[in-house]
Specification:
6-stranded antiparallel beta sheet, 41 helices, 28 strands, elongated, Dicer_dimerisation
């Protein structure tokens, strides 16, 4: 027969009976002490009764542990009472604290009298000592896997603690506890469903080898086969036939034992066990007798007809599988469905909530229940009503029953009435359509992660510089530009050099700083308003002079190159004030003629004259034809006399020449000239890092001693050449200015050229400025603009999917594509100024031509087709920096930056944000507000100083997903909007408050000022949590605990900052201690940060901070997307806290950023930190990979926290 065949393979061990003797326990002294306190504290009655039962069942140690647990819970209740009394006192209500003070004194006395101890076998009851003996028999079994079944939750909890600590059991036992959930337990012992499944998972993986479980482990959970199952309790109330059979079924191992612990000579225990065996045998006999009838499906027309005929009044079947739900099973199935959902907010925990309604009138079925499902369920199916029933319990079961039917019909349960596996790990709020959109969006985001690369891009030269020197009727029209400098003392000095260009500067004058000797000098370029005309012969002269000036400074500089501008001499005397640009004959034609018609042989005789030798630059072919500026004619010094060489290898001037040719003839009567090398430091655009390192080495910077017999006179005077060393930096900046002006015209944005130049300059260019600060500001604006667009364009999408849209639109890849479309990439400044790689801009035509002359391709054009290696991220950063520069142009008006976004990214974005108002779709408003709604609106409006045109928006900002009010949407979309505007305002504040702070510091300040802990502290002190409309006991408990902890931690601290109407932006605060080591400073900073920013140690409910952001989003929406209206509200509520607690001296660098800086200092660039989901335990795993090998990894509940934990772990090592 079928049942006999099954019994051949199914393990059904016979029960093994083990006996323990009866013993009358003596209560511990702590129990007697608390019993004596009963009259003073009546609420100790129930705990004393329960702990005495524990004493008899488990022993004295468990009794004491239970007493301590009870006292701690009462202490927490007292703290809550104190917090409530504080609120009552604020309203003028006084309370008597005598009882609470007395209990506190009693608790302190109890702690001093009865210190906690480690359990020993003598502290256990006879039953537990027998249990230890049975478990000890498996001490040498490495495959041991067992379950101890108990009746009550507190028994499971205490026994689990005991077995993990007593004797040598802790050496081989890895004990876990598995129990149910309840809020009515006196001793407060329960487990959430997520904790239950975690325990089962650890047991299955072998992390645990013993479970102490209640009946929740008897069925319904996937628990592996055990080789030992023990029933601890044998009385009738502890084990019925179902418990007996199902617990034995867990002993599925072939050699498993099923052990029953019985009291010696206890007739009730033995009789109960025999009765269970007899009843089981009777059931088996009946099943065997009817087995043939059940095994012939051809006798039944409908496979489920028999079941339906015998079904209870309320039952729902799935025809395909026969899966069934009834009133009895609906509650458990609904709990299981909710437990499989993943939510981010503790207030939206994955459990169903029931609302009971007493129907009016006389009826046999007066109760009706509504079940509220978690926020992961679509909004339209989140509130499900049941039918009227005769009791509260049946009403709740009916609501759960109806919910299961609805969930199945909507595709959230499969044909076995189990949660759909592809929906349980997601936040689904708007049904299948959103799920499809979400899935597609996740695929796109995964594709974007792989699109990180570097490419060669052409370095753009402004088209206005490439206009050839075209002659019209023998004359070429050019523009003259003159230069002068202003030193730190403010005295202006004319430069003897200017330049000609075919196209004039885009502005009449230009001023910018340079650092010739690491001291700032301001350079002024003035355009002569009237153009001049030169002949082709004069052009050749200018080109020759241009070559003579720059050749000593620039490496590989060729006279045949056709440059876009030419250096010309200006008629000024040394150290004279700036010349008048309106004067005629500014060009020094005589100096031009003398330099271009210089007779070096005739001038060589000038080297014998001490005065004449110092006027001109000296060229020494024996020193690789280098140019020197003479400093002194050393009379009385010969070639072989000792001189103070900076290079210790040379003792005389002759030593430097004989290094190249030892047989070189040197005239011993020749005179020595002390000179210095013409400066080769061309990058004077920054006073730090690489610009300083580009100075040649020390022996070349020091004095050089030359012999006139080997030298020639160079046709440029010394004072002119000293001015010429500034020209590479001036011309490089000028080219950037031309290029930036062209980009501004190309993308049609209204921003000043200097700001735009800063926005396109990468740190690798080693300029005094770069795009990093603007990129931080622009990133916050871009997030705000994209958030606003997504919010309006997708009115029915959830906050989760909107965030995905945002991630794609704001991704580096999308920004890179936008930069390529508008041609920004070729304007990026990423290459530093260097004498080996830079030359003045070269135009296509190397010779002048008439308008009718046909030009041919000139090989010199290749000089302008330079490329630079840029990463896609650099181009994306430049796009954000351009937006930041536009914000900087007018920080209170977003239209300039919005215009740039419209022109660069997509014309789908509105320039005037008020145009979005027309497209906003709001849900229908109810005819009247819910109870307390008007009070909420009035008080919050007063707090933020803003009066709402649509008060229901403010109500929406306080409506939690669990709210029973179905007429108002929850706050999540408004929180999505408010988060973006808050981040933008925070970055903008710190950008202007700390103008010298590095971008990483700005990000750290912003993160500290908008994180969940800080915002929750601000919102709680404003009292916003009191107005949250929700239906979640977990959220209430979480908020209460947080507020109490916040109150207790601030009791000993100074007064909190007041809520004020106006607060001015404070100046930058700078702090530091240069005498301390980096580790000492970091440790001191972290200690100071924890001391001042006390909220960091509290576990803040995310709901509280979300509410604050939602209010800001509501103001932003109601005001017609006016950022300044939001800022006014933030100045009243948020800014006082920032002024008091957020500044660079209190904020430490984020661990991930600290790790990145550390790795770069070590010279490692081949590292990355991929982050992926953990399929087994949930959460995410971040891995540090160096050279394609995993070095370290860490887990966290989110990607952000996983990377943070990984960074902290790496920094500790």
């Amino acid at each position: 027969m079928m049942h006999d065949e099954i019994s051949r393979y199914a393990s059904r061990p016979s029960p093994t009976l083990r006996y323990y003797h009866r013993e009358t326990p003596e209560p511990p002294s702590m129990w007697y002490y608390l019993r004596d306190q009963y009259k003073r504290f009546p609420y100790l009655e129930k705990p004393l009764i329960e702990t005495y039962k524990i004493l008899k069942n488990l022993g004295s140690w468990c009794c004491i542990q239970s007493l301590w647990s009870t006292l701690r819970q009462i202490e927490r209740d007292i703290e809550k009472s104190l917090a409530r009394n504080l609120v009552a006192a604020l309203h003028g209500i006084t309370t008597d604290t005598h009882t609470t003070d007395a209990f506190t004194e009693m608790l302190l006395d109890c702690k001093s009298r009865f210190p906690e101890t480690t359990p020993t076998p003598s502290d256990c009851s006879p039953k537990i000592r027998l249990l230890l003996t049975v478990l000890g028999e498996y001490r040498s079994d490495p495959s041991f896997c067992g379950i101890v079944f108990v009746q009550r939750r507190f028994t499971a909890d205490l026994l689990g603690q005991l077995l993990g600590k007593v004797g040598d059991m802790r050496r081989f036992l890895r004990v876990g506890v598995l129990m149910g959930h309840s809020v009515n337990d006196v001793l407060r012992n329960s487990m959430k469903m997520t904790e239950q499944y975690q325990a089962v998972r650890d047991f299955r993986k072998g992390k645990l080898n013993l479970l102490v479980a209640t009946k929740v482990a008897e069925e319904g959970l996937d628990i592996q086969a055990c080789n030992l199952v023990i029933r601890l309790d044998m009385d009738k109330g502890s084990m019925n036939l179902v418990n007996y059979i199902q617990s034995r079924g867990r002993a599925r191992d072939p050699n498993a034992k099923f052990v029953l612990l019985m009291e010696e000579n206890n007739i009730e225990h033995r009789g109960h066990q025999l009765n269970l065996q007899r009843r089981e045998q009777e059931i088996r006999d009946v099943l065997r007798a009817n087995a043939l009838k059940l095994e012939k499906p051809e006798l039944v027309d409908d496979a489920w007809a028999v079941v339906r005929q015998q079904a209870p009044p309320y039952a729902f079947y799935v025809e395909k599988t026969g899966a069934t739900v009834t009133l009895a099973s609906a509650v458990g199935m609904l709990y299981y469905f909710c437990a499989m959902q993943v939510v981010d907010d503790v207030g939206s925990q994955a459990v169903p909530q029931y609302v009971l309604t007493l129907l009016a009138g006389e009826t046999d079925e007066p109760w009706m229940a509504t079940v509220i499902l978690p926020a992961t369920v679509p909004m339209e199916f989140r509130h499900i009503n049941g039918r009227p029933m005769r009791s509260k319990l049946l009403a709740e079961r009916m609501a759960a029953y109806e919910a299961i039917k609805v969930l199945y019909k909507q595709g959230l349960l499969d044909d076995y009435l189990m949660p759909m596996p592809n929906l349980t790990r997601r936040r689904i709020k708007y049904g299948d359509e959103e799920y499809i959109a979400r899935t597609e969006q996740e695929k796109r985001l995964k594709e974007l992660k792989s699109k990180k690369r570097k490419r060669n891009h052409k370095a753009k030269v402004a088209d206005s510089l490439l206009r050839p020197w075209v002659a019209d009727e023998g004359l070429i029209t050019v523009y003259l530009h003159v230069l002068h400098t202003t030193a730190a003392d403010g005295s202006p000095t004319a430069m003897p050099l200017g330049f000609l260009a075919v196209n004039p500067m885009p502005v009449p004058e230009m001023t910018f700083p340079i650092w010739p000797l690491l001291a700032q000098v301001d350079v002024h370029i003035d355009k002569v308003p009237t153009p001049i005309q030169i002949t082709e012969a004069q052009l050749r002269q200018f080109r020759r002079y241009h070559y003579l000036i720059l050749q000593p400074i620039i490496k590989h500089f060729h006279e045949t190159s056709a440059h876009a501008y030419l250096v010309v001499p200006i008629s000024v005397a040394p150290n004279s004030p700036p010349c008048d640009i309106h004067e005629p004959n500014l060009i020094d034609w005589q100096a031009l003629h003398d330099a271009t018609h210089f007779n070096s042989r005739m001038a060589k005789y000038a080297l014998s004259s001490a005065d004449a030798a110092l006027d001109y630059v000296i060229q020494d072919p024996r020193h690789y034809d280098r140019k020197f500026i003479p400093l002194e004619f050393c009379t009385g010094k010969g070639p072989f006399d000792p001189v103070p060489f900076s290079d210790e290898h040379y003792q005389s001037a002759a030593d430097g020449y004989r290094k190249v040719n030892k047989k070189l003839y040197i005239d011993e009567n020749d005179t020595v000239i002390r000179a210095k090398l013409v400066s080769r430091k061309v990058n004077m655009l920054a006073f730090f890092n690489i610009a300083h390192n580009e100075l040649v080495n020390a022996k070349e910077l020091g004095d050089v001693f030359l012999l006139p017999q080997f030298c020639q006179v160079y046709p440029i005077k010394t004072w002119i050449m000293e001015s010429a060393t500034l020209l590479p930096s001036i011309f490089f900046f000028l080219e950037l200015y031309y290029k930036t002006h062209e980009l501004r015209t190309k993308i049609s944005i209204n921003v000043d050229i200097q700001s735009l130049l800063t926005a396109i300059t990468a740190p690798s260019a080693t300029m005094q400025f770069n795009y990093e600060r603007f990129e931080t500001l622009g990133d916050s604006f871009l997030k705000l603009a994209l958030t606003l667009h997504c919010f309006v364009a997708h009115p029915l999408r959830s906050e989760g999917l909107l965030s995905m849209y945002m991630s794609q639109l704001q991704s580096n890849h999308e920004l890179f594509k936008a930069g390529m479309r508008c041609g920004v990439a070729e304007y990026v400044v990423a290459t530093k100024l260097s004498r080996t790689t830079w030359a003045p801009a070269t135009i296509p035509d190397s010779t002048p031509s008439t308008p009718n002359t046909t030009t041919t391709q000139n090989p010199a054009k290749k000089a302008i087709d330079t490329t630079q290696l840029l990463s896609d991220k650099q181009i994306a950063d430049v796009i954000e920096a351009i937006l930041g520069a536009c914000v900087h142009q007018n920080s209170t008006d977003p239209r300039i930056a919005a215009q740039a976004l419209h022109n660069i990214y997509s014309n789908a974005f509105n320039v005037d944000w008020k145009d979005y108002i027309k497209a906003v779709r709001l849900s229908p408003r109810p005819s009247e507000m819910r109870d307390g709604g008007r009070i909420t609106v009035d008080r919050v409006q007063k707090l933020f100083g803003y009066e709402f045109k649509d008060p229901f928006l403010l109500l929406e900002a306080f409506t939690h997903p669990t709210s029973a009010d179905r007429t108002v949407n929850c706050y999540q979309r408004l929180e999505f909007l408010g988060d973006a505007v808050l981040g933008f305002c925070a970055v903008r504040l710190f950008f202007y408050r700390y103008p010298d702070l590095q971008p990483g510091g700005l990000v750290d300040l912003k993160d500290a000022a908008v994180n969940n802990a800080f915002l929750a502290c601000v919102a709680a002190n404003l009292g916003l949590h009191r107005y949250i409309d929700h239906f979640s006991s977990a959220l209430s408990e979480s908020i209460t605990d947080y507020c109490e902890d916040l109150y207790s931690i601030t009791k000993s601290r100074k007064a909190l900052p007041p809520v004020v109407e106006n607060s001015n932006i404070l100046p930058s605060e700078r702090a530091g201690s240069p005498t301390k080591t980096r580790l000492e400073e970091k440790a001191e900073l972290e200690e100071k940060q924890r001391e001042v920013q006390y909220w960091l140690d509290l576990e803040a409910p995310k709901t509280i901070s979300d509410i604050y952001e939602a209010v800001l989003g509501a103001i932003f929406l109601d005001s017609g997307f006016e950022v300044e209206q939001v800022w006014e509200g933030m100045k009243r509520t948020w800014l006082p806290w920032v002024d008091a607690y957020i500044n660079p001296s209190l904020i430490s660098r984020h661990p991930y950023r600290e790790m990145a800086v550390h790795l770069r200092k070590l010279g490692c660039d081949a590292w990355r930190v991929p982050c992926s989901g953990d399929p087994e335990d949930g959460g995410f795993i971040a891995r540090l990979m160096m050279h394609k090998e995993i070095v370290s990894e860490a887990k966290g509940p989110s990607r952000k926290l996983a990377r943070k934990y990984l960074a902290e772990q790496v920094l500790e090592v």
